[in-house]
User: Fold this.
Amino acid sequence: MRFLTLRVRTFLFMMLNLLLAFLLTGAFSLFHFQEETTDYHLQRLERKERAIISHIEYVISGQDSVPRSYDEWSSLFNERLNEIGSVHKLDLAIYHPKGERIAASVNAAENQGVLPERLNEFPKGGRRVPLGRKVDDSGDLLISTSEILDADKEVDLIVKTLYRVDNSAIPESEIEYLKQLVFVYLFLLLLGIVLAFVLSNYISQNMRRVIEQLKKVRLNKTNEKLDWRFNDEIGELIQQYNDIVEQL
Assistant:
């Protein structure tokens, strides 16, 4: 089996380094884009959730007195929650501080796993101490749990909001940026291939020049010296050759 020439080995080595660098850079860019996409969806969910909470608080503020019992809350939101879910284009459910579901948007039956009839994690006597907002990520579904507090800063209602991750909703500017990044990477890859080819030829041609001159060296004859402008590895090799020529 014939060994690969120096030019081919140099070219392949440069290509290997180039491809490795591009794979690492591409992986980092993809990871960064995924992180940006995740942040976009989380921020979008937070904005929509704030709007939903404001809508619910507006409905409550229109009552002569704030409901307290399960039946009072159910009477208020049984019809209104479908309207709220439709306006904000999200599925949601409202729970009593004791964990019982008061009302849910029209698609709650399709989401029994995440919008159950009762929140099992609640203590038997209910919970009035606020725990703050929580978001659970189950891949293509974000589930946000937030609270509406009364004047005493105790929990009046618990709101669960479902946000289905749809990457088609990513801003066009982000998609356009990713496309431009791919084009830049392809251009740099092609440029790197050309440079690798030129450099491998440059190195191998000069090495070939030294080899050809070495083949012509004869004792007791005038041998031609080689000139080299650069103080590099090839220059050191040529200097060694010129020293041998002088000794001969």
User: Anything to note?
Assistant: Residues 6-61 form the longest helix (56 residues). The chain has a mean pLDDT of 79. Residues 6-19+171-247 form one domain.
